[in-house]
Specification:
Structural class: alpha/beta
Number of helices: 23
Distance between the termini: 83 Å
Strand order of the largest sheet: 3-2-4-5-7-6
Radius of gyration: 25 Å
Low-confidence stretches: none
Shape: globular
Helix content: 25-40%
Bound molecules: thiamine diphosphate
Mean pLDDT: 96
Length: 587
């Protein structure tokens, strides 16, 4: 065949282009697990002097690490895995990031294009499987498209409502060559998220805030994503508007500020939920009216006019009526709003909110048996880290809710938790990802004995890379949050939630072995087997000394706290109910 001399010479392989793109985008850390269909990329990764390569011990762990790296730094997290099981293992990580709007770029190996659809070894329809759990995904057919796709992927992941973008890269595309350059700028007419809020809408919002007698800001993860915490704080302080946050918004407004009503929703502060019930003007800012917040939709904020401020037009009016939509970048909108709002007063309203706060602070009863209360562990960790540059990650369950309640959230990007998907197993890999992004910070993971067993293998990554994370296991011998719901709604039948050998259902057919401890695994041995320091704490008097020892030591630490087994999370608005149905105490 005659060579077309008008074509530029082929100069680099698809695999090389991947690594060049990472370097161009300023990526410094890559979470990557190898396999047959991605080896060409790994060969190139090994040549890069600038990349810090992290080998998780399970692809799910790697995806959560990349996600939390992004949450902690604001820069996109990158993970690379092989085809088939490598790709399916990151699905939970992608879904977690997608629900919480976290920027990630995932690159998956794929069988050669000629084999696609043949049930080839380690073939999976990665694009099909991940389409519903990514912001966007690409199947690369032609290596000449790859430079453009990479530029687009990083752009789409980090703009608008951020999210994970996946690039599926067949083996033959990795080894094919092209001289196609990286495009200078991103150009896709179908993707132009608005940045500036419409001036008329912004002016109208200012009028509504100025006219309100009982205004409330309801702030979510969008404020964190937009780096708009300072803008929100300035606005709330000028207009004297109380601020309640979602779980994802924790830290976007300092909880030490008297205007803070802390967390809203199912396990939120009673004051925040009462304010929601009584306010006459609700401004939702980067929040998506999750059902854990709205409860019974028909009774949500019944007296309020509702404004939605969000970068994502799809979020406007999705579940809750909207009287005023303001679409655009939250920081830009709040900054434009600041000169338009009047210095507020709202003395009566603020006094009312303060009275609600004083009447029902987050609190807990002591253990009847004198055991350690899990909330006390978190309160102590909070006290010991005040004034320090500390980041907390959590798992999912009671440990997560108590962390929302008993940590004082002062700054954005310091509380990393799987909000939307509620992914157990997130906490430990998240701590590792966060520590890689923020090497100076004290990173503490709060987890349950159930969640710890979902990604415990990643401890070795922390140890190997000298990432001195501190893992606090609140061992209540239960899948505690589910146990609580069983007590509440299933007549106390603990179906498969009691993790001791003696507490299992007859159907599980477990004969307790008297030569073994009733509870397995031994977390201390498990931690030590991975090279971490570890200590079991069962006396309340030892909680503070143990935390101090771990926090002041440069090693990876696992502290297992043997806590009151059936401590509950209160307050609680049962699912589908409204704030008036709040349960203050179960017993
Ligand atoms: C991957 C995954 N599987 C199942 C669940 C359902 N779930 C939510 S909380 C919970 C119990 C968590 O138990 P544990 O980790 O011991 O924490 P605790 O609630 O006791 O603090 C379960 C099973 C989940 N959120 N994520």
């Amino acid at each position: 065949m005659k060579k077309d001399s008008s074509l530029p010479p082929a100069t680099r392989t698809g695999a090389r282009i991947i690594v060049e793109a990472l370097e161009r985008m300023g990526v410094d850390t890559v979470f990557a697990y190898p396999g047959g269909q991605i080896l060409d990329v790994f060969d190139e990764l090994a040549k890069s002097p600038d990349l810090h390569l992290i080998l998780p011990r399970h692809e799910q762990g790697g995806a959560h690490m990349a996600d939390a790296y992004a949450r902690a730094t604001g820069r996109p997290g990158v993970c690379i895995v092989t085809s088939g099981p490598g790709a399916t293992n990151i699905v939970t990580g992608l879904a977690t990031a997608n629900m919480d709007g976290i920027p990630m770029v995932a690159i998956t190996g794929q069988v050669a294009t000629a084999l696609v659809g043949n049930d080839a070894f380690q073939e999976a329809d990665t694009c099909g499987i991940t389409r519903p759990v990514t912001k966007h995904n690409y199947f690369v057919r032609n290596v000449a498209d790859l430079p453009r796709i990479l530029v687009e992927a990083f752009h789409i992941a980090t703009t608008g409502k951020p999210g994970p973008v996946l690039i599926d890269l067949p083996k033959d595309v990795q080894i094919s060559k092209t001289s196609e350059p990286f495009p200078e700028k991103f150009d896709r007419p179908g993707y132009r998220p608005s940045v500036e809020g419409h001036p008329k809408m912004v002016a109208r919002l200012a009028q509504m805030i100025n006219a309100a007698k009982r205004p409330l800001f309801y702030a979510g993860g969008g404020v964190v994503a937009a780096d708009a915490s300072e803008a929100l704080t300035a606005l709330a302080r000028k207009a004297r508007v109380p601020v309640a946050t979602t779980l994802m918004g924790l830290g976007c407004f300092p909880e030490s500020d008297p205007l803070s009503l802390r967390m809203i929703g199912m396990h939120g502060l009673i004051a925040a939920n009462r304010a929601l019930d009584e306010c006459d003007m609700l401004v939702s800012i980067g929040a998506r009216f999750d059902d854990r917040v709205t409860g019974k939709v028909s009774e949500f904020a019944p007296r309020a006019r509702v404004a939605h401020v969000d970068i994502d037009p799809a979020a406007i009016g999705k579940t809750i009526r909207c009287d005023l939509p303001v679409v655009g970048d939250i920081r830009s909108i709040l900054t434009d709003l600041l000169p338009l709002v009047r210095e507020g007063d709202h003395a009566d309203w603020l006094a009312q909110c303060a009275a609600w706060k004083a009447a029902d602070p987050f609190s807990f009863d002591p253990s009847p048996a004198g055991a350690i209360m899990p909330q006390a562990v978190i309160e102590t960790a909070d006290r010991l880290t005040r004034g320090r540059d500390a980041i907390f990650t959590t798992d999912v369950g009671q440990n997560q809710m108590w962390s929302c309640q008993f940590l004082t959230h002062e700054r954005p990007r310091t509380f990393l938790s799987s909000g939307g998907l509620g992914t157990m197993g997130f906490g430990l890999p998240a701590a590792i990802g966060a520590q890689l992004g923020r090497s100076d910070a004290l990173v503490v993971c709060i987890t349950g004995d159930g969640g710890m067993q979902m990604n415990a293998q990643e401890l070795v990554v922390a140890v190997e890379h000298r990432l001195p994370v501190k893992v606090l296991i609140l061992n209540n011998t239960y899948l505690g949050n589910v146990r609580l719901w069983q007590d509440l709604m299933y007549h106390g039948v603990h179906s498969m939630t009691h993790l001791t050998q003696s507490g299992r259902l007859p159907q599980e057919r477990i004969e307790p072995d008297p030569t073994l401890p009733d509870y397995l695994p031994d977390f201390i041995k498990l931690a030590e087997a991975h090279g971490a320091r570890a200590r079991r704490v069962s006396d309340p008097a030892d909680v503070e000394p143990a935390l101090r020892e771990a926090f002041d030591d440069p090693h990876v630490w696992v502290l297992e706290f043997i806590v009151e087994p059936e401590a509950d999370i209160t307050p609680m608005i049962p699912p589908g109910h409204s704030p008036k149905d709040v349960i203050r105490r179960f017993k």
